[in-house]
Amino acid sequence: MSLFLRRFSLACLLTLVSGAGLLAQDYWQQEVNSIIDVSLNDTEHTLDGFIKIQYINHSPDTLRFIWFHLWPNAYKNDQTAFSEQLLGNGRTDFYFSPKERKGYINRLDFRVDGLLATMQDHPRYIDVIKIILPQPLPPGAQTTITTPFHEQLPFNFSRGGHVGGAYQVTQWYPKPAVYDRKGWHEMPYLDQGEFYSEYGRFDVRITLPAKYVVAATGTLQQDSASPITKSPNPQISKSPRTLHYTQDKIHDFAWFADPRFRVDHDTLQLPSGRVIDVFAYYRSTSAPVWQHSIRMIKQAVRFRSSLIGEYPFSAISVAEAKIGTGGGMEYPMIAAIAPQTSSSELEKVIGHEVGHNWFYAVLGSDERRYPWMDEGIDTYYDDRYAKTYPPPAGRVLPSPAGLALVYNDALARIKKDQPISTSSEDLTAFNYGMIAYHKAAIWMRLLEDSLGRPLFDSVMHTYFRRWQFRHPGPEDFRAVISSVAGPSMGPQRLDALFSSLDEKGPLPPLPTHRPLRAMLFSPMPPRDTHLYNYLYFAPGVGYNKYDGVLLGALVYNYGIPAEPFQYFLAPLYGTNSHQLDGLGRISYSWYPDDRFRKISLGLSGSRFSTLSGIDSNGKKLSGGFYKIAPFLRLTLQNKTPRSTIERWVEWKSFLIGEKGFDNYVQKSTDSQYYPTAGNYHFRYLNQLSYFMEDTRVLYPYNFLLQAQQASRWYRLNFTGNYFFNYAQGGGLNLRLFAARFGYIGGRGNALDLSAYQPKLTAVRGDEDYTYSNYFIGRNEFTGSLSQQIMVRDGGLKLRTDLFQGIQGRSDDWVAALNFTSSLPHGFLPPQIPLKIFLDIGSYSDAWHANAPTSKFLYTAGLQLSLFHDLLNVYAPLFYSSDFRNSLKTVPEENTFLKKLSFSIDLQNLLRLPPFDKFPL
After folding, report:
1. Domains along the chain?
2. Dihedral sign (CA 345, 348, 354, 360)
3. Mean pLDDT of the region 680-705
4. Distance from chain centroid for Cα 868
5. What is the model's pLDDT at position 325?
6. Mean pLDDT for all residues in the chain
7. Per-residue pLDDT tens over the stretch 273-284
């Protein structure tokens, strides 16, 4: 047949199978057939191979170059797109990995039809190169490209590499980028974001030491260790082993080698009568979890075959492998599953990864650009599978679909969601799972509800049949829906549904509020339109020395998703003070999604005792405070959703009433002094703050710039923190503090303002003038409760209660540096969170003539950080001579235990999940 007739016949065939609205000239795809010979060196963890590629140009364009993916170079250094993305997603393991754990590909010698080809580097990515063709490749023509290659396999940080004598060989050979109707799709390797590759035939020979059992893409044609059989687990010999695999109509090839693999095998007859081989590869130690894995694989294949289309390949395999993640990873005909802790979890992962043979291996959408077309559609079928095969009776588990609705609604409420159509690399790490997987699955359920399940299933059968082994995009999926559904899905409804892929916010027509239990414990929540507002109650318990045990209740509506109007009330009764205390907060938040991400207007308040005593008549007395603090906070919008920066400006006023003991009187009967009840004295404080924080995993930092003003004084404060990561974990935190104090109306006021003045040593409870920190005994000067401090101002961690003159207090300026470092890796067991600290600072008076102290004061010692830094204990071991000489004069205070101090830092609760994802 002539070239013209062959091309005409191909065009007719494409027209027939493409359906309404798809013309032959509108779609074409390239063909890439690969022959690869590769050998494994398990001493050096290297591959040496040779690849021969037949590249057939089915495009209407003449090609003068071909982009190639050299994805092993993603592991070459810490300057790659892969490394940068890991950091952006909160991982430093690759960035700090030693050279021997990194990887690369080299010794390339590209030749095109025997002629040496020029290689050009990509301007941005070291794992992508351009091969300049010696001769242009016109439409309909083909060329042969060859090259040897040498690869250093990395430790498995992401899908491929080696771990503990096992090999996971993925994305391992030079691979042409896709060229389609939208142009070239050259892209770097990423951990978050999968692949897009050309279909063709693979012919692969793998040579490796005979001890390895291999699981691979394709059909095993021959094993040199057992030339007659196609069994994956022949008798082991001492000679190197060569395995030969072939497979048509696939776009990738992966293999896994482990000498400890145990192999289970069975066959499965499909509805058409075809029989396929089913393999499970796992270690013997995992047998209790994997013992039913063959049944799980077969059930997954049957389920999706019945709903989408029959599994087209001759075999399917699942292999246990450490792949740098807790789930699994799919490749044509094979999936890698990370070690699982239970058979139920294994079944979920197997179902999802096996399902990718339909949405990835057969329907080869551009996963990097449209992850929802792969992950989202597959997750939709996971939800149907969970409903078809529910957990055993009596086990009521949260529905994944229900949980997805909760979290996606929560993201939308706080304007942190992203459109379903967002590309993989542009999604935040949290949204990659929530949006690309689960919100897209909800969108698929909307499509099903719009069509009705029978018509929906017909659409998916047609989609699978028309587009198998090709590269469908969203427009192709839509065309199938339109052609199959016809009048059942009018253009306007279809427009609205597909437009929602590009929009933020809740998916229509789901209601904004739903019964939480219905969302969590049903496969999909009922579609009622009622609005629900939740009020939560919980017992409340607290303690301080003066109120004693505090008993009461917590009344709040904080939850997921967050309401615009939020409140928290904790009325508490003091069993010692016999008074009603407590705290509360109400606020209303707007999410304008423009210059400001969030605007919050609110009011907080609290009331507690800070003193206790007995008067001359034996009656209990209490002193304390009340605080009312209105505030307005403007949280600024970030330029990109993946930004880790948080910035806000806040105005807050503190309206404070304080009651102490007005006087002490001497009782004639025992000559002792007793307090008398006092009255509340009112004061105010205005505070303007600007806060900026970058929570990036590498070298995170924050700073707070603050201006405070009261009736007789003002303060300007700056507090900054910068964290230097160590390669082996932990790091050094550098804190910088500086403050300027001044008087309003002059110094001639008799009022003592020392409690408001900045100082170098850490702050005591009676100096917490905004009552912003929790103290067990706020006004204790002896005993263990007096050893609680607040790391504010200079933060020198040595209590000098008896010596005001050496505390570094100033009514001018104070500056300090605080260093806190984790101990070297391996110095102590990781269960002992011990650190070292060094504090050094100076203040205005130290630079005057006849200064009370040296110009610089310092402390250094050990810090024990417990409960995620909620409780910190400080032991000063070295300190300035000013401190040392003063402490010598009070030997009873100059002991190790008496010099200990501790801080209770409840603000660190907000850095723990889930608050880091959904701030209150």
Report:
1. 367-528 (1.10.390.10), 533-654 (no CATH)
2. negative
3. 97
4. 18
5. 86
6. 91
7. 999 999 999 999
Q: Give the Cα separation of 158 and 239 in Å (integer).
A: 31
Q: Residue 426 phi/psi, 5° resolution? A: -95, -10
Judge whether 59 and 139 are in contact, CB under 8 Å: yes
Place of tokens 């990423």: 190
Question: Whole-angstrom Cα distance, residue 415 to residue 399?
Answer: 24
**Cα-Cα-Cα-Cα dihedral of 72, 74, 78, 84, to 10°?**
-160
Q: Cα(300)–Cα(350) distance, rounded to whole angstroms?
A: 8
User: Is the separation of the CB atoms in 298 and 278 below 8 Å?
Assistant: yes
The amino acid at 181 = R
Per-residue tokens: 135: 């001769």
pLDDT number for residue 535: 80
pLDDT tens digits, 326-365: 899 999 999 999 999 999 999 999 999 999 999 999 999 9
Phi, psi of 347 (to 5 degrees): -65, -40
Q: Crossing angle for the helix pair 440-451 and 474-485, nearest 10 degrees?
A: 20
The per-residue pLDDT for range 44-61, each reduced to its tens digit, is 999 999 999 999 999 999
pLDDT at 238: 67
- For residue 335, the cross-strand partners are 318, 330
Please answer whether residues 761 and 800 qualify as being in contact, where contact means their C-beta atoms are separated by less than 8 angstroms: yes
372-414 confidence digits (pLDDT tens) = 999 999 999 999 999 999 877 655 556 677 778 888 888 888 9
The H-or-E segment that residue 222 falls in is strand 219-223
CB 544 within 8 A of CB 612: no
Helices (H), 19-134: 81-88
Phi then psi for 178, rounded to 5 degrees? -75, 135
Tokens 């007659």, residue located: 228
Q: Name residues whose C-beta falls within 8 Å of residue 129's C-beta, 6 or more positions apart in sequence.
A: 67, 68, 70, 119, 120, 121, 122
* Number of other CB atoms surrounding residue 532 within 10 Å: 12
Q: How confident is the model at residue 569 (pLDDT cuts 50, 70, 90)?
A: very high
Answer whether the bond into residue 392 is a cis peptide, omega within 30°.
no
Calculate the alpha carbon distances from 614 to 78, 543, 567, 617, 783 in Å. 67, 20, 37, 8, 20
Q: Name which of 380-394, 550-564, 801-815, 867-881 the model is least confident about.
A: 380-394
| Collapsed DSSP state (helix, strand, coil) of residue 22 | coil
Whole-number Å distance between alpha carbons of 841 and 836: 17
Whole-prediction pTM: 0.90
Which residues, in sequence order, are bridge partners of residue 249? Answer: none
